[in-house]
Specification:
By secondary structure, the chain is α/β, with parallel strands linked by helices. It is built from eleven helices and seven strands. It has a single domain, classed as Glycerol-3-phosphate (1)-acyltransferase (3-Layer(aba) Sandwich).
């Protein structure tokens, strides 16, 4: 009964605006003052349609990733496409036509996660082994239908790996969704969040960390291709494919160091 109430509440726009304002007010300092967020490729958000847009990203924390995206989307809808978030005036009337895909177990784990779910969580079910490790199965058909319905009127954020573990394999459910709905697919690459926040993304782990969010140009996807090929294209676009993994730890550390150094230089300018 409580879950039904939450489902009804998150479809009330004024409720979602209030949640955005509360969560946004508390999270803004952690992204822009305590840590240093840099946004790249925000211009790719400028001409996107208001619906049937799927943001596909790598995943580093349960909540901080999505909260950061919502800040950026709200700012963009107010006309800010800069590399830094502006003063959060956009929270006065936030853009709420966004949903995010999240594991039901995660979003029902605490009162904080339940509150955040009102911002637009689409619950999906996971199959768990007894020892707590996840079986890599596709989405339940009912979950897929929920996402399809949301795409008809909104933007969707999804994490095809379904885990915060780097270079974990992607799930074919995302590829199937793209094949069935043919949305505008925007790849996103994030970095620094795992270093700045704990796994949930609610507590600071290392202050002063450069954070980066990179939006790439929408992908050109041939939906007549197999699920494996579509998924491979997605994973390569979010830099989580076998190609990136095979570059080796030393190469990845060097690339990450370059990225962090570049962010630091931008922050100091």
């Amino acid at each position: 009964m409580m879950s039904d109430l939450f489902e009804r509440l998150k479809n009330i726009r004024i409720i979602r605006k209030i949640v955005y304002a509360i969560v946004g007010s508390f999270s803004y300092p952690g992204l822009t003052m305590i840590n240093k967020l840099t946004i790249t490729g925000a211009e790719h958000l400028r001409n996107l349609p208001d619906k049937n847009v799927l943001f596909v990203s790598n995943h580093q924390t349960y909540f901080a990733d999505v909260i950061c995206f919502l800040h950026i989307f709200c700012a963009a809808k107010w006309g800010s496409y800069k590399s830094k978030l502006p003063i959060p005036y956009y929270l006065l009337n936030p853009f709420t036509s966004v949903f995010f895909v999240s594991a039901e177990e995660t979003m029902k784990a605490s009162w904080i996660s339940r509150l955040f779910s009102l911002a637009g969580a689409i619950y999906v079910k996971r199959t768990w082994r007894k020892e707590g490790t996840e079986k890599l199965k596709g989405l339940d058909p009912s979950d897929t239908r929920k996402i399809q319905r949301a795409l008809e009127s909104s933007w969707i954020i999804t994490f095809p790996q379904g885990t915060t573990k780097a270079y974990a394999p992607g799930r074919k459910g995302t590829a199937l969704l793209i094949k069935q709905t043919n949305p505008v697919v925007v790849p996103v690459v994030i970095s620094g969040f795992w270093r700045a926040f704990d796994k949930k993304g609610l507590r600071f782990k290392k202050k002063g960390t450069p954070l980066s969010v990179t939006f790439k140009a929408p992908l050109k996807i041939d939906t007549s291709q197999s699920l494996d090929i579509i998924l491979e294209q997605l994973m390569d676009a979010i830099e989580q494919s076998k190609t990136y993994m095979m570059k080796g730890a030393h190469h990845r550390m060097a690339e990450e160091a370059k990225r962090q150094a570049a962010l630091s230089r931008q922050n100091n300018q």
